[in-house]
Amino acid sequence: MPGVTSDxxxxxxxxxxxxxxxxxxxxTFRAPGGRAPFRVRLSIEKDFWAHQTLTLRAFYRQFxxxxxxxxxxxxxxxxxxxxxxxxxxxxESARAREEAWNAELGAVDQSELRRRIDAAVSQSDEWVLxxxxxxxxxxVAGRSGYRRTPYSKLLLPAGx
Length: 160
Fold this sequence. Notes:
alpha/beta, 4 strands, globular
């Protein structure tokens, strides 16, 4: 496919992805020689608005550097809508929507979660799991006890 990035990278699964900043850091990293060793294959975020940004960035990453449509920038400027952009690039938008999953960990069906993770990493022996702690549980308000949320229970110590 013209303009689409190679899929010979180490896949990343990003939990509590927010708008995708941690994943962006990994995907913009370049090894000596300029190769991008990482590719986000699945990002999971429960917040609707953060997920919208996550999906748009996933769409952007479907293209080689400098090959994304100018219409993408029109969307960022507010002079075009996301759906018209996605309609022009159905394959890339379908991959972006598959990559960016609007779901709440702990509330989604565990078999669906496993299916999506397996699909994201099945072509590689090596893969990376990243994710920030859920902000609601680890914010200043959460630490002060002012606001308790169930999200702090989603993180378990290694080996648990």
